[in-house]
Amino acid sequence: MSNPTLPPMPSERLLDLRDVQVGFATRDGRVAAVNSVTYHVDRGEVLGIVGESGSGKSVTVRAIMRLLAKNAVEGAGGSIRFNPDGDRELLLSAEHKNSRLMREIRGGRIGMIFQEPMTALSPVHTVGTQIMRTVMLHRKCGRTEARARAVELLGKVQLPNPEEMVDRYPHQMSGGMRQRAMIALALCCDPVLLIADEPTTALDVTTEAQILDLLKSLQDELGMAIIFITHNFGVVADIADRVAVMYLGRIVETGSVDDIFYAPKHPYTQALLQSIPRLGQARVRRLKTIRGSVPDPYNVPKGCPFHTRCDFADAALCGTELPPRKAFAGDQSALCHFAGELREAGQ
Amino acid sequence: MTDFADSPETDGAELYRASARQLIWWRFRKHRLAVVSLVFLVFAYLVAIFAEFIAPYQPGSIEKLQTFVQPQVVRVWHDGGFHAPFVYELKRTRDPETARVRYVEDREKPLPVRFFVRGERYEFWGLWESDLHLFGIEHRKQKLNLLGTDSLGRDLFSRLVYGARVTLSAGLVGVIFAFVLGLFFGSISGYYGGWLDASIQRLMEFIRSIPTIPLWMGLAAALPIEWDPLFVYVLITLILALIGWTHLARVVRGRFLSLREEDYVMAARLAGASEYRIVTKHMLPAMTSYIIAAMTLAVPEMILGETALSFLGLGLRPPVVSWGVLLQDAQNLRSISLAPWLLTPGVAVVCVVLAFNFLGDGLRDAADPYGQ
Amino acid sequence: MLHFVVRRVLWAIPVLVVVSFISFVIIQLPPGDYVTAMVAEMRNNGEFVTAVQEEEIRTALGLNDPLLVQYVRWISAILLHGDFGQSFHWNAPVADLIWGRLGITLILSTLSLVFTWLIAIPVGVYSAQRQYSFLDYLFTVFGFLGKGIPDFLLALVLMWVGFAWLNMDVGGLMSPQYEGQPLSVAKALNVLGHIWIPVVVLATGGAAGLIRVMRANMLDELGKPYVETAYAQGLSERQVVWGYPVRVALNPFISTVGWALPALFSGDVITAVVLNLPTTGPLLLQSLKMQDMYLAGGFILILSVFTVIGTLLSDILLAWSDPRIRYA
Questions:
Q1: Is the CB of A139 inside 8 Å of chain C's CB atoms?
Q2: N or C: which end of chain B has fewer CB within 10 A?
C-alpha cells in the first residue's frame, strides 16, 4: 500500500503528512482551509498544534481521520501516511470516508477527543453503552466482556465509582467528568495515536489542569502518541514535546517545545509569545497585541499570509512572494523570508 | 456578509447601512418560491375583493338548460386564421345510448369574448350598483363557463370567485381572532410567569391534546341552522380561532421567555429603562417578524378548517358560497365522474394553502437574524 | 421512573373529570335539543304536535332536569353500569352502536398508522442524509403537496381515479354482496381490495407531514458533535445514523403516539365520510348533526378519555426513551 514516489517512513515515524491541502466548496466559491501542511508524529511523542480559530488545525486532523465534511475538496498532491505497527505504511489520504480500513483505524488505532464534552456524547445513551459499542465493534467480544472493559476504563480515567458511572447519562455528569468519559471512550481499544481537538477549551481552568495531568499520566502509562490541538500556548508548554504553529491554513513554524519557546524564528510565533503574560517577566506598560485581525479566508493575502499584520514585513517581498521554509538546527523550521535574521522575541 | 453576495445592491457599505427591515426584505427576496407565493396571494385577494366585477355572473343565477356544462375552451384560431379570443356556441344534445345531456361545440358559430361588458346587475360591496363585468360574451342564451357549471347550471368560475371572498377572508379573520387571543394569553404567560403561566400552559396543553376535527365538529354542530349566514360565518371563524390561538400563544410566550433573558434586555433594564419602554422598544420589535411568520403559517390551517367543516355540512351552508360549500357538490362519486370540474375549488384550496405555507416559511427564514 | 409514572397518572384523574364534564356541556350547547329536531320532523311529515306534548316528551326523557343532575345521572350510569344511554335517533344503546363499529375502525387506523411510520421514518432519514439530492427534492415536493392537499380531497381524487380509470368499485369496505355475510376467505379478500384506498389516503396525509418533521430533526441531529464522535469510533454510516441521531430524532414521533390513540378511535372523520366507511367517524358526524345527545356525548367522552390516556402513554414513552426528560 505504500506509495512508490514517497521515501519510506523511518521506523519510529507513526504518522506523516505531506502537502496536505483541503478546501471547501461553498456557494461563494472555493475556500482554502489547509494549504500544503506537512508535519509528522513519532511513536509515543506529543505534538502540540497551536493556532487561532480558523487556522485549519481541526480540518487537518479531520483529514487524517477521513471525517471531512461532504463539501470538502482535497488537493491531489498531498499524502497522509500512517504506520500503526511499524511494519506497514497505510496511505490514509487514498481512503474513502467509509472504507473498511478507515472504520478499523478509527476508534481502533486512532482515538479522538472533542472540544465540547457536553454535546460530543450521545444524550440518550449511557456512557457505558457508548464505550461498549466501540469495544464490541473492534474487539468482537460479548457484552459482559465489553462492560468489564468499560468499567476498567472509567476507573483508569479516575472517575469515582466506575461501576456506577457506567450506567450514567452524560447530562448527569459535570463537564470534567464528561471529558474523562470522553477520554475513556477514545482510549477504549488502546489506540497508538490519540487526537485531542481542543479538549480543555470548554472547561474551567482547574478542571483543565486536572484533565491535562490525566492525559500526561495516561500517556506515560499507555505510551500512545498524542496530537494535541489548542489555541493556548500555556497548555502546549505543559504537555507537548514538539510544537507546530498554524496560521491561515499553513504551518508557519515547527520545532521542539524548547526551541519554539526560547528561540522562535517566525514573527507570528514571536508575537503570539509576547502576547502571553508571564510570571517573572519585567513589567511592561501594556501586553503586546498583534495588530489587525485574521484575514477573511475568502481573501487570503498574496505572498506571505501574515504580511498584513507583520511588524517586519517588506511590502515588495512579503506582499508578492510566498516565503520558503527555512530549516534550523534541531528540526526547527519557519516559513518566513527573514527567519533567523530578526531580533528574537523576549529580549 | 457573504450571504448577500448575489444581491446587486448589497456591496459592503450598503449592507452595513441597511435597516433590519431592509435586511429581512433582501433575505426574503432570495426565496423565489416565497416571492411567487406572495404575488399569487396578492392576486387571489384582489380577485376576492373585486369578485362582483371579475365574475361574469352572479353566484346564484340558475340556468336550467345549462346544467353540468363542461369547462369551455377559449380559442384564438378559427377558420384558418387568428382571431380575438372567442368560444364556440354550445348545442345541447342527448347521448342516444345513455340518454345523458351533452353539450357539443358548434364549430360554425364563434362567440367573441369581450372585455368590460354589460351583464347581470350587482351591488358592489352593497355600495353602488353596476352591471359592468371584466369579461363575458354578448349573447341572449349562451353563457361563458370557463370552469363549467354545476347541477343547477350555475357558473362555477363565478362561484369560485365569490367563494374566494368568504374562504380567504375566513382565514384572515380567524387568524386575527387567534392572534388577539394568542397575543393576550401568550404575553401574560410569558411575561408574568408563575402560577398564571402554569395554568395557561395547562389550558393550552389541554386544548392542543383534543383532536381538532371532532372538537370543531362538536362546536360547529352547536350552531343553529336558522341563524343569519353572516353571523354563522363569524362564529365559525371564532371556533377555528378558539383552537388555533394556542400555537400563536406558544410562539409569543416562547419569544417573551427567551427575550427576557437576553443580555440586551438586561442592559436596557440596567440603563434604567421603564418596563413599558423595554417591552415596546426592545422586546416587541424583536418579536414582530416571528409573529407575522407564525400568523402566515396559521392562515392555511384556518382555511383548511373552514373548508373541511363546510364540506361536512357543519360550517357555512348554502346560499353562502365558500370553497368548502362548493366542494359539497363534489362529495359523491357519481357527480365527480359526471362532472370532474366540480373539484376545481379543491385545486384552489391546495394552491392557496401551499402559497401561504411557502410564504410563511420564507418569512420565517428571512426574519431569523442568524439564518443563512 | 416509577415516581414519574405515578405523578403523571395522578395528574390525569382531575383532567378526566373536567373532560367528561366539558363533553357533557358541549352536547348541551345547541339551542334546542333532540326533541326539537324530532318534533320538527314530525310536523314536517304532517303530524300535529302541541307544545304541551313536546314538553311531556322532554320531561319523560329527563331533559328538563338541571344540567348538573343530568350530568351526574349520565356519568354514574357510564361508570357503574357501562351504560352510555340510549341513542334517540337509532333507538339503540349507545354502547352497542359505538363498539359495533370500533373493530373495523381500529384495524383501519392501526394499518394506516403503521404505514405512515413505515414511509415517514426511512424517507425522512434518507432525505436528511442526502440533503439536496434529487430524491430529497422529490420527497420535499411530496411533503408540501401532502401538507396542502386536504385529506378529503385526496380521497375524492383517488376514488375518482379508481372508479373512472381503473374500473374499481370504491367506497365502503366491501362490495355490497358481502355486507352482513359471515367472514370468509372471499370476503376477507374483498375487504383487502377496498381497504387500501383509505389506508393510502390516511397514510399519505400523515406521512407527508411527518417526513418534514423527521427530516428537520435529523438535519439538526446530524450536525451535532456526538455524531462525529460516533464516526470517530469506527462505526459505519448505517450504524452511526440509525444508532444515534435517529434515536433522538424519533422523540417527536413517540409523542404523536398519544394523539394516535384518539385518532385511531375517531378515524379520520372526513375521509371516512367521503369513502363511506363503516367506522365510528361518520356515526359521530351524524349524531352531531342530529343532536343525538347521548350518542354524541358518549363519543366525545370516549375521545377525550382516549386523548388523556394517550397523552399519558406518550409522556411515559418519551421519558422511557429520553433520559433527559426522565431525570428532569
A1: no
A2: C
